[in-house]
Every structure is written in C-alpha cells, then in structure tokens.
Amino acid sequence: GDLILVDKLLFIANGPDNGQKMINTMSVAQKLSLNEKKEFFLLKNAHSSSQCINHLIIGIFNLNAFAISDTASAICMLASGFNHSCSPNARYSWHVAGGWLRIYADTLALVVGEEVYISYISGRHIYGSHHKDRQNQLKNYGFICSCIICSLPFSEQEASDRRQVEIACIWESVPYYMPHQTADRLGAIVHTVHLLKEEGYAADKDDFTNDAAAICACHADWESVQYWVTKTYKTRVAEFGEDSQRATDIHNIYLDLKRSPDAGMQRKQKFTVGL
Ligand SMILES: [Zn+2]
After folding, report:
1. CB of 92 within 8 A of CB of 66?
2. Ligand 1 center from residue 138 Cα (angstroms)
C-alpha cells in the first residue's frame, strides 16, 4: 500500500455515547473560526432541510465524521470527499501522534481513472452483514450502495452473503477451540483469510493472522509465530504505515517473539499451517 492522502483535521468531537458526542460536536463547531465554519458548511449534508443551525451541524457531522477511536470522531475536509464501497480499494486510519487522517491504497493495483473508495462501515460490521444489512447501515448517509459487491447478480450476491456469514461465524468461534484442536483452529483462520480475499475485502485480515501468531506462541512454535507475525506486520505497514501504532505493536513482538502474551502456556507443538 501507498500513502495517498494525509489530511489535516478540522475538529474532533468526543463523547462516551452518541448523545454526549452530539452535544460536544455542537459546542466545538460553534467555536470554529469564521473561515473554518465556512469550510465546514461546504461539506455535504443528507439532512439539509432544517433551518436550525444545530441540526445542520449534526447533519454534516453524521455524514462526514470519521470514527478515530471508540469515543471520538474527526472531521477532515479532503477525506470527506471519498465515496463508499463495501469492497474498498483504500483504507483510512488515524495517526495518533501526528493528528492526521491518512489514506493508504495499493496504487499498483489501481488503473488510471479508477475511483478510490473507502468503506464507511468498519470491517467488523461488514463481516457477517448481508447485502441488505449493509444497505440499512448506509441509509443514514442518504444513498443506496451500488458498489461492485452490492450490484452483483442475484446468485453471486447470495454467494457473497454466505461468505460473510461464514466469516462472522469463524471469527466468533476462534476463541473457543480446545487446546487439542489447535491445528483445526489455524485451518479455520486460513480459510477465513481466503474467504476475505474472495469477497474482495481483505482489510482486517491482520486481526486473523495476528490471532494465528498468538495461538502458535501458546504452543511455543516460534517458526510459525515468525511466519504469522511477518504476515501481520506486512499487512499493517501496507494499510496503516510503518510508523502507525498497529504496525509498531507488531514490530515490538517481532523483536522478541517469546515476549508475546501467553507464550509457551500450552503443550509444545509444531504446526505446518500457512496461507
Ligand atoms: Zn456496497
């Protein structure tokens, strides 16, 4: 992946729940300078019929803000212009230290004139979501998704829905395998990464490969840990950048594999499962 955009921040709104976040949004937006306000009100608003200034602020915020943590969302002007796809060819992330929103895309895979899409729904909400659920989640943005997956012919749409359900089932079952089923558990992870690839949205595959690394570390299979940690690290560098927190976390484990949590807690065993 390549860094294609570093966007400056207009403002961040915080809140432990949606109501609090909205209150914070109104107060922060009112404190913007005149020029910043002008910029903000240029952004799209799917609910622009209201005459009430607070309704307009909330309408713009809901449509354009990027979730950057569990409680905070950010308004970044240029990144707001990107359209959504359920099979996006780019991914955004928040760079905590810099205070930037960054977008990474595999520019070698893009052809001239191809639109760059991000996903407005987080990976966790795309797993297991049928085409209809996704349309529902996107309703607040005021459009019906006609991305490459959502406009598939019916039979392929059904196949996509089946894959999504399977991915979600595996994700939920991965923590519950018994210690003697570790090879099956790794097999399920490998299967999921392939399903994600077939689905055309392999973002978050690093979470699965990271799980595989932790599982192999439990059994003190350091060669396999190295294999899975390398996969995870490469994905995170490509999608979030080398200096991102997510890549740095993995890099630190890479330096001393035996330091990973739960290392060597289970019976020593060697696995030959890979992608
Ligand atoms: Zn879609």
Report:
1. yes
2. 9
Q: Do 182 and 105 share a structural domain?
A: no
Same domain, yes or no: 124 and 38:
no
55, exposed or middle or buried, with CB in 10 Å at 0-12, 13-18, 19+? middle
**What spacing in Å lies between the alpha carbon of 255 and ligand 1's midpoint?**
40
Q: How far apart are CA 142 and CA 239, in angstroms?
A: 28
Q: How far does residue 221's CA lie from ligand 1's centre (Å)? A: 40
Task: For residue 115, tell me if it sits in a domain.
Answer: no
What's the CA-to-centroid distance between 235 and ligand 1, angstroms?
23
pLDDT in tens, 4-39: 999 989 999 999 999 999 999 999 999 999 999 999
Q: In a 10 Å sphere around its CB, with 0-12 CB exposed, 13-18 middle and 19+ buried, how is residue 54 labelled?
A: middle
133-179: pLDDT as tens digits: 889 989 888 899 999 989 999 999 999 999 989 998 998 898 898 88
8-state DSSP, 17: S
**C-alpha of residue 145 to centroid of ligand 1, in Å:** 5
Span from the CA of 53 to the centroid of ligand 1 (angstroms): 32
Considering its fold, how many domains does the chain have in total?
Answer: 3
Going from the Cα of 4 to the center of ligand 1, the distance in angstroms, rounded, reads 22
- 39 with 131, same domain: the answer is no
Same domain, 169 and 263: no
Q: Cα(66)–Cα(86) distance, rounded to whole angstroms? A: 16
Looking at the structure, do residues 94 and 125 belong to the same domain, yes or no? no
Q: Are residues 76 and 145 in the same domain?
A: no
For ligand 1, the distance from its centroid to the CA atom of residue 158, given in whole angstroms, is 14
What is the extent of the structural domain holding 212? 177-275
